[in-house]
Design brief:
alpha/beta; globular; Aspartate Aminotransferase, domain 2; Aspartate Aminotransferase, domain 1; 2 domains; binds pyridoxal-5'-phosphate
Amino acid sequence: MKAVTTETPIDLEIVNDKIRELNVPKAGNATIREIKRLVDNIEAASGKKFIRMEMGIPGLPPAQVGTDAEIEALQSGVAAIYPDIDGIPSLKKEVSLFAKNFLDIDVDPAGCIPTVGSMQGSFAAFMTLSRLNQAKDTTLFIDPGFPVHKQQHKVMGLKYESFDVYEYRGEKLRAKLESYFSKGNIHSVLYSNPNNPSWICFTDLELQIIGELANKYGVIIIEDLAYFGMDFRKDYSKPGVPPFQPTVAKYTDNYLLLISSSKAFSYAGQRIGMMVISNQLFKMRSDDLLRYYSSNEFGRAMIFGTVYSLSSGTAHSAQYALAAILKAANEGKFNFVEQVKEYGEKAKIMKKLFVDNGFRIVYDKDIDQPIADGFYFTIMYPGFDGPALIEELLYYGISAISLSITGSEHTEGLRACVSLVNRSQFPELEYRLQKFNEHHPLV
Ligand SMILES: Cc1ncc(COP(=O)(O)O)c(C=O)c1O
């Protein structure tokens, strides 16, 4: 309702009406799904297409090798049969090989477990890790982060703490983490790398600090690799050849990795991800687990306690798909990084369009290096807080989400996702940003 002129790319009255119909105190504070619905409604009423940057949906076709293998598996009748809870053997073997080839780590197939998306993997991890040690009842999030992980804590009634890493990059991370770990209540830490929403990528020094402190304080690190290999500044695409996707697993055995198939393999719809538990953590014993599980071994509790209770495993056919995708990647026949590079290339162009029109990148550096171009980037416009900027951009046909829901202290910022924006929309994006800049001159 604050657009300064009626000359906005999207009809002012339509936007005002639809915001009113949403019936929330401040449209800019709405959830991702509410923003999506609002934009759908404005698009339908105005007949104008938005530059949609609010949702992190893969914008590319699924890995073909996966689709083919899944069809074949279905035709052979796997749908009738319960898969093993901890995954079909061929998939477990390929995950273990994938970890060797692309992370340069050794994990037994036993600790490689398919999950119903990485989302179920994190749910299962939080549930089991919060029960490993009676004295430790809290997760620490290195934010900004993916809001659903906190929602998972809320629905399970679990405790968490968090901090925005912006001011604690490099060696400064050590004291900050130690200030939490030394209290003795943290059982695990979660961060995503590359990071959703800011696309910061931890350096090896930072991963080493996290690993060392995990060893010192007996904390488990949940490393969320939802955007595996997607720091395009380096080429992580060659199996068995350095450089490898950086990981905390190089510096500690206290790790549990979550690898999503959604973005790296554009396989979001089949809801399959991988949980990779270190050999040491898998075998870790704690009698505190017996309060909830029939085994005091972490790996057994995870599989036969948590994953069994949640879904009794992961869809059979999707496991064949993932096994085929990984096999092709492991054999160097499928360059999954090449397939998704388009995101980085689009981000580079889109970031420039925003910056040329007065916007600033919020999370702009990995310590001394410019941030990579990838699936997301963060923006702000002087004079606006995040919710106000979201609302104002609606009149210009541009949608994004506020960083305030990601645990970021940069509440003036927005997260922009490149995946659904088509290159053919770039001229229109440029025009709309120019109009925005013209109507909101910077002094
Ligand atoms: C950081 C992060 N973790 C996890 C997920 C969920 O992945 P999946 O689709 O495999 O459940 C996402 C999806 O957007 C994500 O961004």
